[in-house]
């Protein structure tokens, strides 16, 4: 059976060019090129600061586009670092723009925290997304890669085979979620 590629909207929580998180998302896109159409979002820093007073039917076009990309995707994958023991501000801002919508409601979702430590961001992102998604994220759909720069270089070469196995586990979990949602 020839399955149509699943559309995955991928968000790097880092706004830095060629960050470890972007490298991981590109690695995933390459590894799964036959199964996934991965769109790596590169406009995170361009979203306006969240303001509930303007979160209505006339939001800025960048916000409307961001929401539409999530809504049209079969699944969402976030890969983020940890900044000052928390989510990067640009990523949290983007997520805040989705709270008043249903774009994430029951959306197949997975995440990777790739950072020096990352424990606080891992916990925070799980809590935030469980609330926004309105369901519990499976343990195999989330991954913490501590010391990420030492494990994956800027070319996407993975020094630790266990990390590559763990990344595949997360993506495979996302694929299973999208297939279940699509009734496959």
Structural class: alpha/beta
Strand order in the sheet with the most strands: 2-1-3-4-5
Percent of residues in helices? 25-40%
Written as H for each helix and E for each strand, in order along the chain, the element string is: EHEHEHEHEHH
- Principal-axis shape: globular
So, the CATH homologous superfamily? Flavodoxin domain
Give the second-level CATH assignment, the architecture: 3-Layer(aba) Sandwich
Give the CA-CA distance, first to last residue. Answer: 11 Å
Number of strands: 5
> The CATH topology is what?
Rossmann fold
Strand content: 15-25%
Number of domains: 1
The value of Rg in angstroms is 16 Å
How can the largest sheet be summarized? Answer: 5 strands, parallel
List strands and helices in order, with pairings.
Blueprint: E1 6-12, H1 20-31, E2 36-41, H2 61-72, E3 75-80, H3 89-96, E4 109-115, H4 119-133, E5 142-146, H5 148-151, H6 161-182
Parallel strand pairs: 1-2, 1-3, 3-4, 4-5
